[in-house]
Specification:
Helix content is about 15%, strand content about 30%. The chain has about 425 residues and is of the alpha+beta class.
């Protein structure tokens, strides 16, 4: 059970590093009351629920991995199977803050396949959360601030740390997740540098679309095949205000192709709004963002990391790794193999902030150069970005929901903007 002492210890660690945190007296009182005892994952469907609720479970493992958490995990201390789960009465998906996945939220479908849209990762890969130290409770923790039938609010606080030494975190991220009975979730994220004079104390990438595949699953079980080519539609970027759609296809033998080009992807990034989509057989999982939600087009770039030759991409190809969320050592290791017993992650399409008018063309050269731009770094620190997360039965549903949200203008950054979207 999460006790007052554990919450106060986390708060003390935050305050010692960076001074007062932005939590009101009411929020602190709510976060420090005794919580109900954790339940088992299988019990969630039997819990009473009038709309939307949050509950702690003590036996969750990402990707339906059923084996022992050795010799690879657990990386997380205390209980690596701990998770905070947002669940709905009218919707089958769940939003899961898994301790073993550093509490990075997973929007998960009943089969176990899920979408992750990243966090404020430290510049140049110097500091992140998906490493042994980043999984520690003192470096990443969650509090349920509200869990009423009409709204759930979960606050995720994290410290991006170097994989070898967490004595000096690079930055502190604070993200609030608001969930409503309509099955939608608003992510509101900001960060504060803990090394304000260092390039690595900042982040220029708050969003990246990854997926989590259940243990033992192949592409054909997860994604629809292309009728002409026979490969699988694994990623899409959808312009909510135009006809553009950028699609990425993978084959089981590692081939990658795209429908669309660099110019199309750049045009979508300048749109009034767009959705990053995992077009799964089971349902479409999406993340919506746009200028009104904190992503101004002159500083915004989308990068296809999958397709060989795509502008700015890291060249991962059909990247599948079983290092996260069930993994071997830390991120950057352990490519997935077809006979792997572990769940695996796959991706990705990344969103980057760049200096006005600039573009990442050669990933490591340009990204590394732009990370040195302290004006850009300080600008990102003062941003609060907002992303709408959800599921949809078809593409038009994503367009309708996404436009209804972004058409509210500045008001789309408020939690109430989500309540009546479906």
């Amino acid at each position: 059970m999460v006790t007052r002492m554990m919450v106060w210890c986390c708060a003390a660690w935050v305050a010692a590093l960076s001074g007062p945190i932005r939590v009101s007296a009411t929020e602190l009182a709510q976060a420090t009351v005794d919580k109900p005892a954790p339940v088992a994952w299988a019990e969630i469907d039997r819990l009473p629920n009038a709309g939307v609720r949050a509950v702690e479970v003590d036996d969750y493992v990402p990707g339906r991995y059923a084996g022992q958490l050795t010799p690879s995990p657990p990386h997380a201390d205390l209980n690596p199977r701990k998770a905070i789960v947002i669940y709905w009465r009218e919707h089958a998906h769940r939003c899961v803050f898994s301790h073993e996945a550093s509490y990075c939220p997973l929007l998960e479908l009943p089969s176990g396949v899920a979408m992750c849209n990243q966090f404020f990762e430290g510049n140049l890969g110097d500091a992140e959360l998906f490493n042994n130290l980043g999984r520690k409770e003192r470096n990443s923790f969650v509090d349920v601030l509200e869990s009423g039938a009409q709204r759930v609010r979960v606050r995720w606080t994290y410290f991006c740390v170097n994989m070898q030494d967490d004595s000096q975190p690079r930055l502190r991220g604070t993200e609030d997740y608001y969930a409503y009975p309509n099955g939608l979730v608003l992510r509101s994220a900001r960060y504060t540098s803990l090394m304000p004079d260092a390039v690595v104390g900042y982040s220029t990438q708050p969003v990246e679309l990854f997926g989590v595949a259940p243990a033992g699953s192949m592409l054909g079980a997860l994604f629809p095949p292309d009728a002409d080519q026979g490969d699988y539609h694994v990623h899409a970027v959808l312009d909510l205000y135009g006809a553009g759609r950028y699609d990425i296809f993978w084959s089981e033998d590692g081939r990658v192709r795209r429908r669309g080009d660099d110019d199309l992807l750049a045009a979508i990034a300048r749109s009034r709004g767009y959705a990053l989509v995992l077009p799964l057989r089971e349902k479409l999982l999406f993340a919506v963002l746009g200028p009104a939600s904190g992503f101004p087009p002159e500083r915004n770039q989308l990068v296809d990391h999958c397709t060989p030759g795509a502008e700015g991409g890291a060249g991962w190809g059909a990247g599948r790794w079983d290092h996260w969320p069930i993994g071997w050592l830390n991120s950057q290791t352990s490519h997935w193999q077809p006979d792997s017993a572990y769940a695996y992650s796959f991706g990705s399409v990344g969103q980057f902030f760049v200096p006005p008018g600039k573009r990442i063309r050669s990933f490591w050269a340009d990204y590394s150069t732009y990370c040195q731009d302290m004006e850009l770094n300080r600008w990102t620190e003062h941003r609060e970005v907002h992303v709408l997360l959800g599921t949809a039965a078809d593409w038009q549903d994503i367009v309708r929901i996404g436009r209804s949200w972004l058409d509210q203008g500045a008001a789309c950054t408020t939690p109430e903007s989500v309540a009546a979207l479906r």
